[in-house]
Write a structure and sequence with these properties.
It contains 1 helix and 9 strands. By secondary structure, it is α+β, with helices and mostly antiparallel strands. About 13% of the residues have low confidence.
């Protein structure tokens, strides 16, 4: 009976430890588990920091070379949710025939929500 009870306690402790690890919370060792996804957002602006509505924002996955696009809102804002934490991304914007500098979201950046504002010289 003691062996069965001891085995049950061991299984329960193992199950709880696995549940804590999969929840993204710190494990028993105190280290945080890697995040599951992250997001990128920002505002597309001209050189005078005025928002550029309807600018097209391009996000390139540097591993697969796939490109996602987003049309900036009236306030120039854009957002790319559910990005892989293990991939580098390149982002730039286009408005009125002009292109912003390309910025990089590194896989080493562990923030779950990153903000990158983009400037386009549309003179």
């Amino acid at each position: 009976m003691k062996k069965v009870l001891g085995l049950g306690v061991l299984l329960l402790a193992t199950s709880l430890a696995m549940a804590a690890e999969s929840s993204g919370r710190p494990s028993a060792s105190g280290t945080a588990e890697p995040q599951q996804s992250r997001s990128l957002n920002g505002v597309v602006m001209d050189k005078s920091d005025n928002p550029l509505p309807n600018a097209i924002v391009y996000l390139k996955n540097t591993k697969t070379l796939t490109v996602k696009t987003f049309i900036a809102g009236r306030d120039g804002s854009y957002r790319f949710p559910a990005l892989s934490p293990n991939v580098d991304y390149e982002v730039h914007a286009e408005a009125k025939g002009k292109t912003s500098d390309t910025k990089t979201l590194s896989s080493f950046d562990s923030r779950p929500d990153t903000r990158i504002n983009l400037h386009v010289d549309v003179r």
